[in-house]
Amino acid sequence: MSITLRNISKSYGPAKALNDISFNVEQGELFGLIGPDGAGKTTLFRILTTLLIQEEGEATVAGYDVITDYKAIRNHVGYMPGKFSLYQDLTVEENLNFFATIFDTTIDENYDLIKDIYVQIEPFKNRKAGKLSGGMKQKLALSCALIHKPKVLFLDEPTTGVDPVSRKEFWEMLKRLQQKNITILVSTPYMDEAELCDRIALITDGQILEINTPHSIIDAFPKKIYNVRASETYRLIQDLESYPNTHSAYPFGEYVHFTSRHSNFSPEDLMTFLKGKQHTGIEIFETIPTIEDTFMELSNTNTLATNA
Amino acid sequence: MKRFIGFIKKEFYHISRDKRSLFILFGMPIVQVLLFGFAITNEINKVDIAILDHSKDATTKEIINRIAASKYFSIKQFIHHETAIESAFKKGEVKAVLNFEKDFGKKMVTEDQATVQILADATDPNTANTISNYIRSILQTYTAEVNKNIQLAYQIEPKTHLAYNPTLKSVYMFVPGVMTVILMLVSAMMTSISITREKELGTMEVLLVSPLKPIQVIVGKVVPYVFLSIINAIIIVVLGIFVFQMPIQGNLFLLAAESVLFIINALSLGILISTIAATQQTAMMVSLMGLMLPVILLSGFIFPVSSMPTILQIISNIVPAKWFIIIIKGIMLKGVGLAYVWKETLILLGMTLFFIALSVKKYKIRLE
Question: Tell me: the pLDDT tens digits for B328-361?
Fold first, then answer.
């Protein structure tokens, strides 16, 4: 077991940032924490990287307790905070060299580990880190977090603010790192990235909604889901909310994802309803649920439960 | 050790690439020494005065000539009536007026006594005081010469010798003072800013999740600034010697060693500030307000500590700069050795160790 959490809670003043979180991450697993901003992902990372102390519960990383063995953990993990945290006035090479030195190693020693990533930024090795593009910054940050061959890698929203092509490359890199038996805990607000993880935990308001493989989470979606489209999207959502059969309706790309309260829902009935509301260009067809749908579904029921 | 050297190397990159800080680091001491040395001075030089001579005889003429010949005064105008004195002062044309009584020369011979009134513009009390003292001294010299051949029965003749600064040059006071202010400010402000910058940019988070020990980070931050501050101290001393002809009486090595001690003291204060301040802005404000004012006002740099109210005298004891000024004035001007300043040195050393211990203790190994 590479990472274990047991009943972790943490609050900032009256605000509960994490509430009774428990899960395990296996050795060599690519584990994703999926949730919106403010869900508690960063707090969780900071507890596991020994930067914050939890109020309740216990956690271990690579077999070391996060409170008592914090020094050992700091030798064996790589951490990439959400905010770009390298020295902007140092060049690419100087940054990498610095992080190698403070971990008592050299670039050459672990070059094979970072080679795939570093070759892409090596042409710019004399450029100041502050002058790199978002995608290149993240590649450099990942190289710096990897240079000492960590057992566990913590990546807090590594792809936020990065263009789609770089995001894709970044995830391919993570997949390759996983082959080298490095455990990776990664957080992201992007639901589409969730499907690339071995297992994911859906987290919101400091609570875990669900932990499973992305596939199982999608399969467990309890309802049929429909793509609905009309020429006026905003009015469409408003009207869908007033439709008596609606369970949920929220925008999803160019469509609105719609689920019904009843299992015997017929799209024709909705079509009639929308036509009655003077909508044009109406399309309704069934679609496959995604992680985001599950997330919305779970967080809705969760809010209902807490409000009740 | 390799980690530590790597850290120091990184610090030097930061410093050498931040042109603005470099400018403050080396521009400030030069500008301040020159400003204090040339502009702010208690000396008087070619002060404009006016003469109101009611007797116009050989004696007054002789005295007036002597005053005119001194480099301290220049006779701007002769006035002819008491009513003109006030208007001369009000116009600000003269800083002092000499009023010789009627029959000055005659009275001196017949009555053994003649009166001259010195009127000085005391809107600037220090200057007024200095002016009247200088004029008095010229008058005394004159009477002494006139009485040369007359044997008086009893007479006390004070002979003043101004030790260590015979010509009362104020630059002798300002060079040690400016050196203290600069070293304190530059060292404390620069380190506190450089540590809080790591917090602000988030790099501290990454440094914490690394095997670097707190003491390595702290000492690593301090070492580069020790070097730079030593260069600063050298610049100030060299400026003092070559621009202001200030003699260094004491041992240069002792001066250097004491300066290094004071620099480390200031740096440890800077670290202490950075453990409290979360942003570069706060660090700068705390350094400026919290250090600059006590260093200038309570260290004895400008205002003598001994003439302050008791409560301020007590407070001044916790200002490290006070002790350093005593030490370097002793070494620079009096040429004393460690035997005379060991007590002050020990106090500085104690303060330094205290600040370092406190900083290491307050250095957060986590984010909160």
Answer: 999 988 889 899 999 999 999 999 999 988 988 8
Tally of CB atoms within 10 A around A110: 17
Residues 15-74 of A with CB under 8 A from B: 46, 49-53, 70-71, 74
| Contact indicator for B245, B331 with CB cutoff of 8 Å | no
* Annotated domain spans of chain A: 3-217, 222-288
Crossing angle for the helix pair B338-362 and B252-276, to the nearest 10 degrees? 20
Q: Please state the CATH superfamily assignment of the domain spanning residues B47-146 in this structure.
A: abc type-2 transporter like domain (3.40.1710.10)
Nearest CA of chain B to the CA of A191: how many Å?
Answer: 26
Tell me: domain A3-217, CATH 3.40.50.300, correct?
Answer: yes
Angle subtended at Cα A103 by Cα A98 and Cα A109, rounded to the nearest 5 degrees: 85
Contact criterion met (CB below 8 Å) for A88 and A129: yes
Indicate the SS3 state at residue A5. Answer: strand
Q: Strands A3-12 and A15-25, how do they pair?
A: antiparallel
Q: Quick one: average pLDDT of A178-190? A: 92
CB-based contact A85 B2, cutoff 8 Å:
no
Q: What is the DSSP string of B293-359?
A: HHHHHSSSSSS-GGGS-HHHHHHHTT-HHHHHHHHHHIIIII---HHHHHHHHHHHHHHHHHHHHHH
pLDDT score of A3 more than 80:
yes
Say what the ipTM of the complex is: 0.85
pLDDT at B206: 92
Q: Cα separations (Å) of B14 from A80, B9, B193, B308?
A: 21, 9, 12, 43
Determine which of A45, A47, A54, A87 to mutate to test the interface with B (most B C-beta atoms within 10 Å).
Answer: A87
**Percent of chain B scored above 70 by pLDDT?**
98
What are the backbone dihedrals phi and psi of residue A10, each rounded to the nearest 5 degrees, phi first? -155, 135
- Extents of the domains making up chain B: 2-40+169-362, 47-146
Res. A162 pLDDT band, cuts 50 70 90: confident
Locate B364 and state its tokens. 């957060």
Tell me what the mean pLDDT of segment A282-305 comes to. Answer: 82
pLDDT digits 0-9 by tens, A100-137: 999 999 999 999 888 888 998 999 999 999 999 888 99
Quick one: pLDDT at residue A67? 94
CATH code reported for the domain at A222-288: 3.30.70
CB-defined contacts A:B, below 8 A: 79
Q: By the 8 A CB rule, do A148 and A127 touch?
A: no
